[in-house]
Design a protein that fits this description.
The complex is a heterodimer of chains A (233) and B (252). Chain A has a single domain, classed as 3 helical TM bundles of succinate and fumarate reductases. Chain A is 72% helix and 3% strand. Chain A is elongated and about 65 Å long. Chain B is of the alpha+beta class. Chain B folds into 2 domains: 100 residues, Beta-grasp domain (Ubiquitin-like (UB roll), Roll); 128 residues, Orthogonal Bundle (Fumarate Reductase Iron-sulfur Protein, Chain B, domain 2). Chain B is 34% helix and 13% strand. Chain B is built from 8 helices and 7 strands. A 5-stranded mixed sheet of chain B has the order 2-1-5-3-4. A two-stranded antiparallel ribbon of chain B has the order 6-7. The longest helix of chain B is centred in the last third of the chain and has 15 residues. Chain B starts with a strand and ends with a helix. In chain B, 48% of the residues are buried. Classes of the chains: A mainly alpha (233), B alpha+beta (252). Chains A and B meet through helix 1, helix 2, helix 4 and helix 9 of A and helix 6, helix 7 and helix 8 of B.
């Protein structure tokens, strides 16, 4: 147990396991988002379904928060140790042999994504009016479901939110960085957990890149559709 | 006089562990393309000695690529970047007339500089002492075929055993991680029946020593594998990660 939190390998397991959990969330979240293409009724019903059980909602939220916390904690701790292990670099800072761009920038891409998540939560979850740049309180967007009960109008919130080009571009950049992060992270976590071998490694590496690309396309589809006017109020 | 290559060398010079080093520029004239990299340094040193200057200190021993002594970062790449080649086996024909070559020591806080290009790699010795061995009964020579070893395991163990402990993996890694070295030693013994009794203890102790020496962690960039003169693969690191997890879960 001591080894899990104090050894370099233990911290890598924490990083990999929480990364795997967060990857699962990112996949589910994308599938949820894409329901916007099924129309107002579908996405609003789905959003209401997620919000309806406070017990499950907060279990999921606390679980995600713990995973993010451990993922960031291990990253910061390991990065500091890595920096201390190589205090002096080489002349003219040559690129380390064979190291991909994604693998060299994991900390940076991760920190930018973390900053984006804070904004994203304020934007669409906490619904802070000041950050949506629309001049409208998203918390007041409601509609009636088929039985006449009032529920949050997530469909209109998405469209109004992404109609602001600056917000959409920031979103797409953040998602791009997330997928860069995942293009390395998904395969590296297998290595960190000792689940790599000669036969599967090339498949894992290609699958990681493929999954990252699919996620990128799935996520940017929503703001792109809104900006192109394919999704209307 | 035989015509050769004229090169400019930018070399890290550092008097001792305590002094602050700096780069110095030297001209290497009429270099024979058939020389090894270290022979070229010998010639440059002869010249420096004749001029009454301090020769460039560098490590070397067997000069046939099997002892793991040579340790220069050449143009930013440990051992110079030729596939599966130590610096002593790198030949000057790999360079062009007029080239400028930078030569630096391994850079890692766990490998303090002794002088110029010579670093202290005793951290590796301490990692081996922590568990890179098997305790066997000595006595009468056992029958060579008494313990069966599957051919696949034998091959993998022998691949891992090729590691000469030069430290190029540490020098190449952006985190100065020793994972490739440690995992080669853990794999080499852990794959064989003789290594089983101490398998859990070995990986825990060697990793603990690796961490204590101040090496970084693995971020799976693959730099170590790319520069390794013995082509040790990242598969070994994965095997060690798995072994460590098993030992940890067992509560050893």
């Amino acid at each position: 147990m001591n080894n899990l939190f104090h050894s370099t390998l233990g911290k890598k397991y924490i990083m990999a396991l929480t990364g795997a959990g967060l990857f699962g969330f990112v996949v589910m979240h994308m599938l949820g988002n894409l329901q916007v293409f099924l129309g107002q009724e579908a996405i609003n019903r789905y959003a209401h379904f997620l919000q309806s059980s406070k017990e499950l909602l907060w279990s999921a939220r606390i679980g995600l928060l713990v995973m993010v916390g451990l993922h960031v904690w291990s990253a910061v701790k390991l990065s500091a140790e890595n920096k201390a292990a190589r205090p002096v670099g080489y002349l003219n800072n040559p690129t380390p042999a064979a190291a991909s761009y994604a693998s060299r920038t994991m900390l940076m891409s991760g920190l930018i994504i973390a900053a984006f998540i804070v904004y994203h939560l304020l934007h669409f979850t906490v619904k802070v009016e000041a950050v949506n740049l629309v001049g409208l309180d998203f918390g007041k967007l409601h509609e009636q479901d088929l039985t006449g009960r009032l529920r949050a109008d997530v469909y209109r919130m998405i469209i109004l939110g992404f109609k602001v080009p600056v917000v959409s571009v920031f979103y797409m950049i953040a998602v791009g960085l997330l997928c860069l992060h995942l293009s390395h992270g998904i395969s590296a976590m297998f290595q960190s957990l000792g689940l790599r071998n000669k036969a599967w490694w090339p498949v894992l590496q290609q699958s990681a890149k493929g999954a990252a690309l699919v996620l990128f396309l799935g996520y940017i589809a929503v703001p792109v559709a809104v900006l192109l006017g394919l999704l209307k109020e | 006089m035989e015509k050769g290559m004229n090169l400019t060398l930018i070399v890290w010079r550092q008097k001792d562990a305590k002094s602050k080093g700096s780069f110095a520029t030297y001209a290497a004239r009429a270099v024979n393309p058939d020389m090894s990299f270290l022979e070229m340094l010998d010639v440059v040193n002869d010249d420096l000695i004749q001029r009454g200057e301090e020769p460039i200190a560098f490590d070397s021993d067997c000069r046939e690529g099997i002892c793991g002594s040579c340790s220069c970062v050449i143009n930013g790449v440990p051992h110079g970047g030729q596939k599966a080649t130590t610096a002593c086996q790198l030949h000057m024909r790999m360079f062009k007339d007029g080239d400028t070559i930078t030569i630096e020591p391994w850079r890692a806080s766990a490998f303090p500089i002794v002088k110029d290009l010579v670093v202290d790699r005793s951290a590796f010795d301490r990692i081996i002492q922590a568990g890179g061995f098997v305790s066997v009964r000595t006595g009468g020579a056992p029958d060579g075929n008494a313990i069966l070893v599957p051919k696949e395991d034998c091959d993998l163990a022998m691949d891992a055993a090729q590691c000469i402990g030069c430290g190029a993996c540490v020098a190449a890694c952006k985190n100065a991680s020793a994972m490739l070295f440690v995992s080669a030693k853990v794999s080499h013994l852990g794959l064989l029946p003789q290594g089983q009794p101490e398998r859990d203890r070995r990986v825990l102790n060697m990793v603990a020593q690796m961490d204590a020496e101040g090496f970084g962690s693995c971020t799976v960039t693959g730099s170590c594998e790319a520069v390794c003169p013995k082509e040790i693969t990242l598969d070994n690191i994965s095997r060690m990660n798995g072994d460590y997890a098993v030992a940890m879960v067992k509560g050893k």
